[in-house]
User: What shape does this take?
Amino acid sequence: MLPSSGATVVEHWVLDGVAELVEVHEQPVSGSELLWIEEEVGYQEIARRIQPKEHLSVFGGPRQKTSDWYVAKIVLEEIHDCGAHGDSVLLWTNWDLINAASPEAAFDRAMELGREQQSPPGSHRCDGDTAHWEFKGLNDLVRIDGPPRDGGILWFEEFAVHRDGLARLLPPRADLGVFSWEERHRGRDKPAGGGK
Assistant: This one.
């Protein structure tokens, strides 16, 4: 039944599950890295991962100012100093927390953080080659609704999905980041010989 003219429609959200749960290793202060993801992609994918300033969420139209806190998705590419990574590129996306007085100031700080996260040639090795990280740009810059705190929402992504597809977006508990990481690293700290 549709509401009658003048009736108030109340929208509510229903929890369908948890799509990701990660452990944050730094205190949530401006400039701290909340999380990161490393992935191999095709060369053509790099351009799709980097958004021009005007397409970043924080510049996407009028939005009420709710806080001075932002999350920047900073994209770095691993560059082999000699040789190549094969037919793919290793991208590293860092989600960094920023406290700034305006979207422009947050953008400037995100770009500064990206440049700071670059590394000089020869800073590490990959597949036997010397390599380094090069800042490519921002994937997004989002204003968050309040200062970071336990239980606070840092950002959300809203999109339409058919109910049948929802289950694929919600992995079982064991596949959530914090639990899958624990499983992969279980036993690494035990001494040799099987002792406790």
